[in-house]
Amino acid sequence: MARRRDLKDQQRRLSAATWSVLAEHGLPGLTLRAVAERAGCTTGMVLHAFADKRALLVHARELLHRRTGQRADAAQSAGATPLDALRSVLLQAASETEEKREEARVWIAFLAAALADPALADLHRRYNRSFVERVRGLVAACRPEWSPARCAATATTLVALVEGLNTLAAVDAETYTDDAQRAAIDAALAPVRAPAAMNAAGVAPILR
Amino acid sequence: MARRRDLKDQQRRLSAATWSVLAEHGLPGLTLRAVAERAGCTTGMVLHAFADKRALLVHARELLHRRTGQRADAAQSAGATPLDALRSVLLQAASETEEKREEARVWIAFLAAALADPALADLHRRYNRSFVERVRGLVAACRPEWSPARCAATATTLVALVEGLNTLAAVDAETYTDDAQRAAIDAALAPVRAPAAMNAAGVAPILR
């Protein structure tokens, strides 16, 4: 039992070390040695858990997917209406806290590595598409009268905006402040919000 | 004279080699040796022009800024109206051609490096802000009645959307097709477009 606990403990340490090295030092700083130093173990012990740098990257991307997925699940189920749920899911993905800024840095580092590695690119696409799919489902719940194509187009646009905000805020938090990000997401949600004064086509009716 | 021409020729070769190595192999593949091989010269000759990998990155980012800047100037001056100019500037920045996809890859690679290097991050911020400023000026020309804050917020949102589209299209051109990108940009331009039936506040007037 003690050995199994030790093993789990070591895995947790290596996992946390991988995450924090990537979040702090980016893709150029991610090496087996840096992870070993951060975890307080030998490079051999890192190699026992991760074959190479690519395995470290895959692990960090999976952690990111799990973290953001759990937070999105929570945001989604806390929403009183589909629109509340959609807005919360988008806002939780934007970089308002240090935790989320770390996530944006991991996201960018992984993406940069994926540009040179088809297997990493596959993983990135898969996880990003699952986020687009979540957003698409929420858009459809908000506007059941919209065509599937319109819901899909709205979802890809919203996700592009959120990831663009995240990406830019990672190096320019002064231009891309929390308020700026929230305002951008709210503006992008305007067509989905469907004010009472507008009909399904987004055209204001003539008042009688 | 011959020597000067040789030197210029060599600089051009090194510049093209830096760009194409970064666009093809991303940040992990950018080394002095890879650039030397691509340029058909020795590593020593690369070192004569670029002190280190960071200098290669800075050069590629400056090339990117110049290329996109020239294209944006052309798009802007070809626009018959401020709205045409704004739309063209945003569309030219999105990844519709292989050339622009290359640019997105260079942008991402540089950004990933900038996360671990404050000097690179400064350069990235400066160039990105100059794009935001261009877009802000065009938004203000389209909607002179808007407050400066509203023009600025619209510009940061439009730039975030464009960079998000670029970033996502770089690894998932199937989800982020040219049509999807164009539709997303047009949807985001709707508030700027100011249909004749809406007044300055974006509220449809009651028809009398």
Automatic annotation (TrEMBL), chains A, B:
One of its GO terms (molecular function) is transcription cis-regulatory region binding. Residues 31-50 bind DNA. Pfam families: TetR_C_6 (PF13977), TetR_N (PF00440). Keywords: DNA-binding, Repressor, Transcription, Transcription regulation. Signal peptide: none annotated. Residues 8-68 form the HTH tetR-type domain. InterPro entries: BetI_C, Homeodomain-like_sf, HTH-type_TetR-like_transc_reg, HTH_TetR, Tet_transcr_reg_TetR-rel_C_sf. This is TetR family transcriptional regulator. It comes from Micromonospora deserti. The lineage of its organism: Bacteria, Bacillati, Actinomycetota, Actinomycetes, Micromonosporales.
